[in-house]
Amino acid sequence: MARSELDIETVKSVESYASEFPHELQTLDVYHITRAPSALWIIFLHGGAWRDPRVTSSVGKNLLAQVLNTSLPTPANAAAINYRLSPHPSFPELTQNTAKHPDHANDVLAGLDYLRVKYGMRQYVLIGHSAGATLAFQMLSLLQKRRTTGLALPKAIFGIEGIYDIASLVKEYPGYREFIEGAFGEEKDWPDALSLGGYTGLAVLAHSDEDQLLSWRQTEEMKGRCEDTLGVGGGLRVVKLAGQHDEVLETDRLVGMVERYLKDLK
Ligand SMILES: Nc1ccccc1C(=O)C[C@H](N)C(=O)O
């Protein structure tokens, strides 16, 4: 927090983005600082294997606080979106956590649409950590399928310690099958590996050597698919971070990396 001048806690509002019978996780933390129509929204998506109730929107707070306190070329707002979770065997008492793919992704899309309708959000970037990175890149196809919502594609997507191909993940880590099946069901129903499908924004894939939960494999394979499916004019960067899987979010290295690319956004 050393560099912070604005204490973002003072501008935070927690809002529900679901109109009917909202689930308690269908909320977002909104950091609304500027009403400028040209404002860039910085949207954080948390991870936690689609199920860990201890990992919520608040894990993005350090990053958002620091980024909102630097001078960017465009006035900026931020939000961190919660989404419904799948069951976790260590928390059987959380009987309301019954989400199954594509609930998580549909919730994130509903959160983005809420920001568009309520705050007039037009330009935004997505920053996803771990399973949040999966969700961030899943938005590309969801948004293109639903062009009518009026929501533009993100100007940039940052995947941090991300999961981008669940079949490959389970092949590398058979022990992860449990949480993958909990979130996505049987193997025959698993979604295909993610790619960019002609996206012409900026894709940043960042990963740390010290990540104890994920090797570089997910990021390396995603890099290959991105190279093949990035549209003309789009950009792809692969960046090395520092720290363990969750610690990465607390590092100045991550903050500096995000700031650098945000400053260069056209
Ligand atoms: N993000 C991950 C990536 C790979 C493997 C595990 C995780 C987890 O978050 C596990 C979580 N602590 C869980 O118990 O569900």
TrEMBL record:
InterPro entries: AB_hydrolase_3 (IPR013094), AB_hydrolase_fold (IPR029058), GDXG_lipolytic_enzyme (IPR050300), KFase_ver/fungi-typ (IPR027519). GO terms for biological process: 'de novo' NAD+ biosynthetic process from L-tryptophan; L-tryptophan catabolic process to kynurenine. Pathway: Amino-acid degradation; L-tryptophan degradation via kynurenine pathway; L-kynurenine from L-tryptophan: step 2/2. It is an enzyme of class 3 (hydrolase). It catalyses: N-formyl-L-kynurenine + H2O = L-kynurenine + formate + H(+). The active site is at 130 (nucleophile), 211, 245. A motif (HGGXW) lies at residues 46-50. The keyword Lipoprotein does not apply. It holds the Pfam family Abhydrolase_3. Residues 42-158 form the Alpha/beta hydrolase fold-3 domain. One of its GO terms (molecular function) is arylformamidase activity. Keywords: Hydrolase, Tryptophan catabolism. Its EC number is 3.5.1.9. SUPFAM superfamilies: alpha/beta-Hydrolases. Homodimer. Catalyzes the hydrolysis of N-formyl-L-kynurenine to L-kynurenine, the second step in the kynurenine pathway of tryptophan degradation. Kynurenine may be further oxidized to nicotinic acid, NAD(H) and NADP(H). Required for elimination of toxic metabolites. Belongs to the kynurenine formamidase family. The main chain amide nitrogen atoms of the second glycine and its adjacent residue in the HGGXW motif define the oxyanion hole, and stabilize the oxyanion that forms during the nucleophilic attack by the catalytic serine during substrate cleavage. HAMAP family: KFase. This is Kynurenine formamidase. It comes from Sphaerosporella brunnea.
